[in-house]
């Protein structure tokens, strides 16, 4: 019920258009890159997915994470505008339920964005490479892995937006976190576990052991962020 309520709320915001347009923009990155500079990639070793993601994933991920940050800010801006959050507290709905419903909504839209990008990678592979045996299995693994690593970023972005009543403050913090993530060395495992840096990892270019470590790290961060949200709600109520 709460998720359906969140879907009704976003109809009055730019949440859905932002994800639709942003998803198409991110999906266009590999297509434009291959159309302009295909000769740079056709003779590289590796599978088509490895080549395409290695060349374009950093830019695509930056757009994805910025969409998550902007989406989280929009969702909570509607709650704090005109004291809507105060009115919601008078209803028999827990704040944690509202938070996780928003997380489901952002996660679903992020899944849509990744599916659009998977379609773009499939088109590029068909147009400039060959769809070999096991292509779609590898594609599902890569983008399923990317979705899992994006979940901590989604939860943390929503937590920041919930903590900041001013949308521009939460947006500024989110943007700083995104650009900080792009400057962290990818060779340092501990630093790459930063929730905003996790989505930049590529399954196709990593070994199984390393990918397993990142998956375990993402699950642990999800648990920590979820617990932090519950604690934050209780602490904030004690000061109100």
Explained architecture:
- This protein has 240 residues and is mostly helical.
- The protein has one domain (2-239).
- The protein has 9 helices and no strands.
- The protein is elongated.
- The mean pLDDT is 87.
Q: Summed up, what is this model?
A:
By secondary structure, the chain is an all-alpha fold. It has one domain.
Beta-strand percent range: under 5%
Coarse structural class: mainly alpha
Number of strands: 0
Q: Roughly what is the average pLDDT, rounded to an integer?
A: 87
Low-confidence stretches: none
List the total number of helices: 9
Overall radius of gyration: 19 Å
Protein name: ABC transporter permease
Give the helices and strands, then pairings.
Elements: H1 2-9, H2 15-37, H3 48-80, H4 84-88, H5 95-128, H6 135-163, H7 167-183, H8 189-192, H9 208-239
Helix pairs in contact: 1-5, 2-3, 2-5, 3-5, 3-6, 3-7, 5-6, 6-7, 6-9
Protein name: ABC transporter permease
Structure characteristics:
elongated, 240 residues, ABC transporter permease, mainly alpha
């Amino acid at each position: 019920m709460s998720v359906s309520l969140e879907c009704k709320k976003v109809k009055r915001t730019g949440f859905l258009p932002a994800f639709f347009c942003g998803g198409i923009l991110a999906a266009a990155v590999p297509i434009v890159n291959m159309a302009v500079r295909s000769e740079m990639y056709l003779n590289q070793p590796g599978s088509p997915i490895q080549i395409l993601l290695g060349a374009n994933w950093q830019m695509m991920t930056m757009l994805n994470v910025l969409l998550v940050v902007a989406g989280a800010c929009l969702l909570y801006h509607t709650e704090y505008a005109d004291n809507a959050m105060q009115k919601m507290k008078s209803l028999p709905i827990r704040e944690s339920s509202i938070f996780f419903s928003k997380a489901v909504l952002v996660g679903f839209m992020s899944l849509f964005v990744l599916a659009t990008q998977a379609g773009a990678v499939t088109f590029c592979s068909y147009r400039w490479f060959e769809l070999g045996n096991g292509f779609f299995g590898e594609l599902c693994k890569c983008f399923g892995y990317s979705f899992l690593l994006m979940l901590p970023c989604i939860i943390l972005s929503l937590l920041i937006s919930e903590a900041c009543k001013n949308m521009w403050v939460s947006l500024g913090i989110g943007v700083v976190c995104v650009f900080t993530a792009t400057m962290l060395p990818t060779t340092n495992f501990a630093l790459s576990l930063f929730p905003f840096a996790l989505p930049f990892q590529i399954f196709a270019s990593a070994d199984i052991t390393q990918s397993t470590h990142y998956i375990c790290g993402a699950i642990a961060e999800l648990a920590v962020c979820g617990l932090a949200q519950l604690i934050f709600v209780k602490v904030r109520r004690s000061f109100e």
